[in-house]
């Protein structure tokens, strides 16, 4: 039923499953605040973005060496492949690790070990996007970026995440200019909990190629017009939005309205180990809630391919895979 698809908004740290967290803590002899797997699993109730980030940031401390970063990346790729993902653009939060004394080299080399084998092992092409915590000073992000560029560590783009309200994109103009000058792709979370104004700033000041979430854009008709006109991709994460109470219930999720308005939206899992499922669960949830037909599911998959940082031949390959899926379904 589900078509081949690109996943463009997934945080590596948000793919740590509870059992992996407990196991990796044991490997390194780390004392977590959780008495057991069950105690950890009982923590997954969130009231807003910050309540989730508080848990995410404790759990990611189990990631210590290259093997850990390789293992978590590999586990995501295995699970994503089962969900129909054929191309993945994966975020990691560099400061989540460097502030604990884990060098960016360890993080990126570990992740790359898994990514470099991903096409052969999992049938998934990949990009790697280094994200900055927007609630830390922009100078911190700039230092991290300069280090990664100086060291020639292989990343494909930068992003901006963590607590949104009070930390507008305008704080990061210099960081984004440096990244663009270095030939990196640029995206940013905006309009998740923050206002439509932050989406304008991401577009006009950071010159982002894609907006992560962006659901609050609907509060500003002029912004919607701009996003439609320029075909700006929005990476929408329905299960995340419900679990973080950005929307009250799935029935109130703006996805159908976004499609009606002609926005270039794709479906994504955000932090799948925390929000109740991977990309397939997100597709199933919106299909069940809104009764989307196969044509709409196909359109969302094609949107994901059109929103990805792929060259024209890679894009054509993925559209051809979706064509084959459609023929199989109707044949
Ligand atoms: O959805 C998110 N928003 C902001 N920061 C994040 N870090 C992981 N997921 C998110
Ligand atoms: Zn996110």
UniProtKB/TrEMBL annotation:
Which parts of the sequence bind substrate?
271
Q: Which UniProt keywords apply?
A: Cytoplasm, Hydrolase, Metal-binding, Nucleotide metabolism, Zinc
Q: Tell me where in this chain the Adenosine deaminase domain is found.
A: 4-325
Which cofactors are required for activity? Zn(2+)
The chemistry this enzyme catalyses reads: adenine + H2O + H(+) = hypoxanthine + NH4(+)
Query: Cofactor: bound how, per the entry note?
Result: Binds 1 zinc ion per subunit.
**Which chain positions carry the site (Important for catalytic activity)?**
213
Check the record and name the InterPro entries matching this protein.
Answer: A/AMP_deam_AS, A_deaminase_dom, ADE, Ado/ade_deaminase, Metal_Hydrolase
Which residues does the entry assign to the active site, renumbered to this chain? 192
Signal peptide interval: none
Entry's EC annotation: 3.5.4.2
- The positions annotated for binding Zn(2+) are 9, 11, 189, 270
Family under the similarity heading? Belongs to the metallo-dependent hydrolases superfamily. Adenosine and AMP deaminases family. Adenine deaminase type 2 subfamily.
Task: Tell me the function of this protein.
Answer: Catalyzes the hydrolytic deamination of adenine to hypoxanthine. Plays an important role in the purine salvage pathway and in nitrogen catabolism.
Q: What's the protein name?
A: Adenine deaminase
Organism of this sequence: Agromyces tropicus
């Amino acid at each position: 039923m589900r078509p081949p698809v690109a996943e463009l908004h997934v945080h590596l740290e948000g793919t740590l499953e509870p059992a992996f967290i407990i196991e990796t803590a044991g490997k390194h002899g780390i004392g977590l605040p959780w008495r057991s797997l069950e105690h950890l699993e009982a923590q997954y109730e969130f009231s807003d973005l910050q309540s989730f980030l508080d848990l995410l940031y404790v759990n990611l401390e189990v990631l210590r060496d290259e093997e850990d970063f390789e293992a978590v990346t590999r586990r995501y790729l295995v699970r994503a492949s089962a969900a129909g993902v054929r191309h993945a653009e994966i975020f990691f939060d560099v400061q989540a690790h460097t502030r604990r004394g884990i060098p960016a080299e360890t993080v990126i080399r570990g992740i790359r070990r898994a990514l470099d084998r991903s096409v052969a092992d999992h049938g998934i092409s990949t990009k790697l996007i280094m994200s900055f915590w927007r609630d830390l000073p922009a100078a911190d992000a700039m230092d991290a970026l300069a280090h990664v560029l100086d060291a020639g560590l292989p990343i494909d783009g930068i992003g901006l995440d963590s607590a949104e309200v009070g930390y507008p994109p305008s704080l990061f103009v210099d960081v984004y200019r440096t990244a663009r000058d270095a030939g990196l792709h640029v995206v940013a979370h905006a309009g998740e909990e923050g206002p439509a104004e932050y989406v304008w700033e991401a577009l006009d000041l950071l010159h982002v190629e894609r907006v992560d979430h962006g659901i609050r854009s609907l509060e500003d008709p002029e912004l919607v017009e701009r996003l439609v006109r320029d075909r700006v991709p929005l990476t929408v994460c329905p299960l995340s939005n419900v679990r973080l109470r950005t929307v009250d219930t799935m029935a109130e999720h703006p996805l159908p309205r976004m499609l009606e308005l002609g926005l270039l939206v794709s479906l994504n899992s955000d932090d799948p180990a925390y929000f109740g499922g991977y990309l397939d669960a997100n597709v199933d949830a919106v299909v069940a809630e809104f009764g989307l037909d196969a044509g709409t599911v196909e359109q969302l998959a094609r949107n994901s391919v059109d929103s990805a940082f792929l060259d024209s031949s890679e894009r054509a390959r993925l559209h051809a895979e979706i064509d084959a899926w459609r023929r199989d379904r109707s044949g």
